[in-house]
Amino acid sequence: MDCVEPLKMDDLTKYTFLSGLTLSPDAETCAFAAHQMDLEENEYRSDIWCYQLSNKKLTQLTTSRKEARFIWLSDGRRLLFSSLRDKEDIKAKENGEVFTQFYTISLDGGEAQKAFRVPFPVSSIVEIRPDLYVMKIGWCEPLEKLSGIAEAEKPKLLKSIKEELDYEVLDEIPFWSNGEGFTNKKRTRLYLFETNTKTLTPITGETFLAGTPLLDEAHERLVFTGIDFVDKMEIRNDTYLYSLKDKTLEKLSLGETFFTEHVDFWDKDTLFVVGSDMQHYGINENSKFYAFDLKEKSLRCLTPDLDLAMGNALNSDCRYGGGSQAIQKDADAFYFLSTEGAGACLKKTDRAGRVETVAEMKGSLDSFSVKKGRLAIIGFHELKLAELYTFTNNRFEAVTDFNGWVLRERSLSNPEKVLVRADEKRPALKIDIEGWVIKPVPFDPDKTYPGILMIHGGPKTTYGENFIHEMQWLANEGYAVFYCNPRGSEGLGNDFADIRGKYGTIDFDDLMAFTDAILERYPFVDPSRLGVTGGSYGGYMTNWIIGHTDRFRAAVSQRSIANWVSKFCTTDIGYFFVPDQNGATPWSDVNKLWEHSPLKYADKVKTPTLFIHSEQDYRCWLPEGIQMFTALKYHGVDSRLCMFRGESHELSRSGKPKHRLRRLREMKEWFDRYLK
Prior knowledge:
alpha+beta, Rossmann fold, 5-stranded antiparallel beta sheet
């Protein structure tokens, strides 16, 4: 029998993360990317794998540990992927040149072959025919100049571009973006690329921010979303139709306040549209399904009563590389992921707007690919980490076992569901709240343990019963971990998720009622040794909680919000997120923003607090943490700020391996100091 050991902090570096699942055109083979941490190099290694459904053969296609982004070519036997493989290309990159080199690799074996190079960073690519592609490209004026210059002139221009890196000129908002850095005057444009002539032809203009295009069945038209802006980007977008034959771009009118989440061809005369006019619940309003008549130029809602959360909103720190969560067409139906309660399932809809569930997985159904009735899925089943599954006759069949060792060799604790009902004991609680507790490992019912309340981000995300390394590891370190989905969370409809203008009120009531219930039902949780932590919105609530109660002996506030006024004027989404969520700007009602700002109550804080922020987090910028840290220090409260250079808002999910481990260590040591 295998020896079972406690889950260790650095086990995080041994997991395999899966992404990019895509079935081949003939639906006989699915390809995906597998990622692992390289602790020594402090980076992630990625390779492309494939699984042949007929003979159930799993094969690793690439071994250079550098490839993750790919598409199937129309022949169904080859993949096209971007990579840096030869020394000359690597050297050119190091010298400041910007380009994307593409390779092909065959399922029949053999080495990857160079296909073509594009003188821009390419974020997505679609094959129209073997000699023609449409690409979404990261564009800015210096790159445009570089792409068309003679080789002899390149060194001079590259030197000039490097000198420009010493400063930024800002003349629009947003001027930066989390995970992308400074984005002023930078756009994602669509280009056609002819491989025979190596000719790039722009489809969209220099001020256009484009989404990923989709191709009709006749390969004659493209449809995509985007927004053309100067000075200030609005929170809506437009839908565009491009004729490959006529080389014409048409803007379709879906409404002045309409935001299109997804658009695709239903047939030659009809578009399938997923979107919202944001009139009832703001920018977080759940989307509905529409049909857009291309002849009549009219939009018709197919699901007026639909109130479903699109996509998988379940939290986990064991994902990397992105997923294939996009809505996908097969036959005459569109398939999509939906978050329902504390789970994510696969659904489909038809032309009549009928919605039915296709597949459910206890844990988290993360991504999928469907073609010709065949279905492949990446999911977290119960406490298993992500694996590849096929789904046939309503049954899941596991294809991979990359992470099976975790269940076999490590001690894990199954989350126990806790339902807190609204009753006379909790007058502030207006609705039932679902949550979980993870018992310490090993567990002795005769002992008491410190407890940690964890709060998710969003707020429109959700917790479930899937594997979260951070929680399981803390349980193995002797902590009772408890968490819930307060009002504001995803998966229970628009009304439940709507906390606009109510931040720090009803959500606070829900979290405190849940904490009360945990202490009542689980006497092994020591009420005198409680900690609280969360990131993003969870960081906001941590900051809020310590200013409104002294029941927690220690707190860890991560990538937080402290001041709605400063967030409005400094962060990438602040200028539209803050007024949408609070119903005010610094000029219309600064007092309202201040009333809901944790910083206002910092003089009431007595809880020792660790602040964790990233230097390049432009979503919840470093000064948010600095403000709270300074306020607590000023008022004599023990506090500490740990700032990670080179990291963004995604530190806990995709940060550098050593940084992710350091973050966990900082958290544990802080809680150990005050709770043990």
